[in-house]
């Protein structure tokens, strides 16, 4: 009955449907989402902060705010997030986002004309793939090894394609869990400067490290302002608040502010204040220390269960952090079929890997497993069930 | 240093800068914004609701939510807003917005290809003008009289241009304050059905009526699903929460949900619950009854002051509701110059009218005055000051 715009036909909703379809089915064990553990939410601290904030500052919190975001959050971000990571930014370099996801659409919108080229990891975050399709960008995959993007291939493709930007999730990537080591972070920042190309560093999982040493963000090596960093509070405070921050050159922030003005006017004030005060009260380091062992235990439970129950032909990553294990079966297996069987026969769900690829054919036999949302015993049970199904798909 | 996308150059930031420039200058009397009176925010009720919600349901509020929005808010909207207005919708017809402003961008995005035609009132809401420019739509003004869009001209232009949609703010329009009478509302819904054209009914001010009878929304005359209604909680609860609702045909909602998934994933949960519970507790009617006299008094103060202090050549509207008085001076006056002088010499600010027009030349001599943000005595003082400046621009 209605005629919709062309882009709505270019974007398949299958990927999201696949994630959601079985997630809420009764009795299902879902490894599908990317949700933080519900046990980790700092409910009491948030209650106290809201009460204090509305007592002190209700009018300014309930009134319209500025599109750029609350100064309280920008100051707290600089002090408690940027500085400790060696990122040199001031308030004019920051804008609050309604979740860091919003930043992907906004930055793509202000940078891309139809047909412009973007370099990405493949597989990569599926929302980014859809945003790039929406804007009719030409997405080119950069070769990756177990340490993420390969720098020689990246440089070659920068020279060959003159991309508008490079999109990377450098730490515990979604979906693969891969992490770009420090020397590549330094190198990618140097390439950005050498060729005048923008890097979008989408880094929501950086605090979720269960082993090994924290790495400096690419943004910390950025001297000229070519790196746009997207930071999220979803994984370290709570995703339901929808608060993220973009850190970038002030000229980029000015354009993104205009785009955000046309989008949601500004991010809700109270949500920004909750995050700002959580930082200002010094609660973040303790909170991260509290959630790390929970996630580490769940990751270990998943890796142990995979070893016990998956067929040996299944190849899975062993990430040092983040929320996901990524795997594949050999041969011509279609994981969408596997999902349908697993969900109906064994009541266990996961995400088929194909939608994370630019060319979905590439990832047909791969899958993503989230380990953060379920306690260890449920993880063991679910992986055992999934193992039974996977075993039927290998010879 | 950076190359931005073409659309960022198509959109002038002047309009928004003009609004913001003098608004926060020290000692200024600002008639610029569209903010609700700060005295009207239901702070105590919101505190209670948050405390109850986080006590009862913290995990689901802090976790990721669905892109479509919280069922609690949809149910409350149906019961307390849609039904009393004669709007027949169910949950599949609704999506929560991060402020109703977000709905303009989302609906335009899923309907418009570059070059598509849209019919609008002129002058109209300036964010809508910018969204349409961004998407390279062809915006055609429909003739208006003191009762809003003229139906014969509208029908003629529907036939002539086959527009993708018609955008209207039917009640106390921003910026003019004009209201479309019931028979035109019925007629516009009938035209939509006859020609298969979508109507975007942007209705944030409908509850702010200080005189006369409430009118049924266009959506209440919509039998086939051609009307997309944007409702806002900004003017009836608090804009800082950023909550709005779109009511539309389920096929449209499905596409808008996809577009929102690529934008901010979902609107923050707590903010939706605050609005839902405000409705469920039956607080809205009493709250509206409380704020109406405050705004009515301020409107009266402004109209009286205009009569006393403005030169007789200034023609101003006398709206029955909303937030704005709209006016113009005769001849070749540039209101941007008037604003600069008023702000520097008299410390009073307003919004020049030009950016609200498709063709800015048309509105050079017009201006918008907000009466909701200041108490009567300040309004009197500010209009007196502005009157002194305006008088110098007439012979």
Rg of chain A, Å, rounded: 21 Å
Oligomer: homodimer
Terminal-residue CA separation of chain A: 48 Å
Structural class of chain A: alpha/beta
Percentage of β-strand residues of chain A: 5-15%
Largest sheet of chain A: 7 strands, mixed
The total tally of domains of chain A equals 2
Mean pLDDT of chain A: 95
Feature tags:
homodimer; 395 residues; alpha/beta; Aspartate Aminotransferase, domain 1; Aspartate Aminotransferase, domain 2; seven-stranded mixed beta sheet; 44% helix; 14% strand
Protein described:
2 copies of one chain form a homodimer. Chain A is 44% helix and 14% strand. Chain A contains 13 helices and 15 strands. In chain A, strand 11 and strand 12 form a beta hairpin. In chain A, helix 7 runs parallel beside helix 8. Chain A is globular. The termini of chain A are far apart. The mean pLDDT of chain A is 95. The interface between A and B is large, with 73 and 73 residues.
